[in-house]
Design goal:
Mean pLDDT: 95
CATH architecture of the largest domain: Alpha-Beta Barrel
Low-confidence stretches: none
Oligomer: single chain
Number of helices: 14
Largest sheet: 8 strands, mixed, barrel
Strand order of the largest sheet: 5-6-7-11-12-13-14-15
Helix content: 40-55%
Number of strands: 16
Structural class: alpha/beta
Strand content: 15-25%
Radius of gyration: 20 Å
């Protein structure tokens, strides 16, 4: 039973104020802190400003005191995520799951879990200044989670030795090169480690007046030209993973690219971890993979429902961090507990390493762990 709930202010990787929730039960105190995203999709559950949360919290918490921790998500649904704010609601939801599981979240989700996700490493990126938002690496030859983490870090380090630049909020290197030169650089280095390349276009941010605008390449592409451009990059650089290659309403182009390309076509903004959006995508065969961000959904239950729909449809699930991260490592447990084949959690920085360290910790707890199957 929930005896009390408290919140405090902490700072995320943007150095912005966010919250940490403390949920007290007869078993102890369980906490959670939500991430935030600079790049937010239109269909995500809405967050509330810190001032608003602090103002409404004394009233909101009265809905939960005296209730069983297993009822938290139902209470959130009854009150309404929009009235609580997805940042507060997901923190309450995660803290309650930790209380239910006594901090063994991955075991509670799947006691027989053995498959580990491949970590996607964000190596090159800068907020909306590069045309393509993120240049990623996937260590598909790694046999252990430790090897996978070391491979991503080695590639990140090699790229940094060449670029000799500063890092962005996610710990990725900021490049002065254009997108093609970035791909040339990353392709050569990745080959040395038998790793594959991924791209996050974040195309909704490139889409202006019916055109995809690539400033560094001096390109303005319509839908058909964008499709051809993405297909050409996939073939030329043997791209393994393509995230948000079209704007968040273009199910048709997502579907066409999925038919033409033999790689992961991943939806983030277009789905926003919303079950109804994913069901539209499944029906229209728009992609074959989905980014899972619990704060987009607002509760763990809704997140798990989205994952259930994805798995039934044969979509790969990529459990993901946000740009504004905290040291909370919940997504590592979520990825393992749902046996998601990939986790996107960065390479460098304490907020990113907290997730990677949790993956290592769980690997050492599980008997006969193994990396997930790659089906592309």
């Amino acid at each position: 039973m929930i005896k009390d709930i408290a919140i405090s202010q902490i700072h995320n990787s943007f150095k912005e104020k966010t919250i940490k929730v403390f949920l007290k039960t007869e078993k102890g105190v369980f906490s959670a802190s939500p991430p935030s995203g600079k790049s937010r999709g239109r269909f995500e559950s809405k967050t509330l400003y810190m001032k608003t949360i602090l103002k409404i919290f004394p009233r909101i918490k009265n809905n939960f005191i005296g209730e069983n921790e297993s009822n938290v998500d139902k209470i959130i649904e009854n009150v309404g995520i929009e009235n609580i704010g997805a940042n507060l609601s997901i923190a309450l939801s995660i803290a309650s799951l930790r209380a239910i599981s006594n901090n063994d979240v991955y075991k509670f989700l799947n006691f027989s879990a053995k498959k580990f996700p491949y970590p996607l490493g964000n190596v090159i990126g800068e907020w909306l200044k590069n045309s393509i938002q993120e240049f990623l690496v996937i260590p598909i030859k790694a046999k252990t989670i430790e090897e996978a983490i070391k491979t991503n870090f080695s590639i990140w380090k090699d790229v940094g030795n060449i670029l000799r630049s500063r890092k962005n909020y996610e710990g990725a290197w900021i490049s002065k090169f254009d997108d093609i030169n970035n791909l040339d650089l990353l392709s050569k280095i990745s080959e040395n480690y038998e790793a594959r390349i991924g791209l996050d276009f974040a195309a909704s941010h490139l889409y202006k007046d019916g055109k995809y605008v690539y400033s560094k390449l001096n390109k303005k592409l319509d839908n058909g030209e964008q499709l051809d451009f993405v297909v050409d990059l996939i073939k030329t650089y043997k791209i393994f993973y393509v995230e948000d290659p079209f704007n968040e309403n273009d199910f048709e182009s997502f579907g066409e690219l999925t038919r033409k390309a033999k790689c992961l076509i991943v939806g983030d903004d277009i789905f926003s971890t919303q079950p109804d959006r994913l069901e539209i995508g499944v029906k229209r065969k728009a992609g074959n993979a989905i980014i899972i961000k619990p704060d987009q959904a607002g509760t763990v239950s809704k997140t798990l429902n989205t994952i259930k729909i994805a798995k039934k449809a044969g979509f790969a699930t990529i459990v993901s961090h946000r740009s504004g991260e905290t040291n909370d490592n919940f997504i590592a447990d979520l990825a393992i507990g749902t046996e998601s084949p990939f986790i996107k959690c960065g390479v460098y920085g304490k907020e990113r390493k907290s997730k990677l360290n949790r993956l290592l910790e769980i690997w050492n707890e599980i008997k006969n762990p193994r990396m997930s199957n790659i089906f592309i």
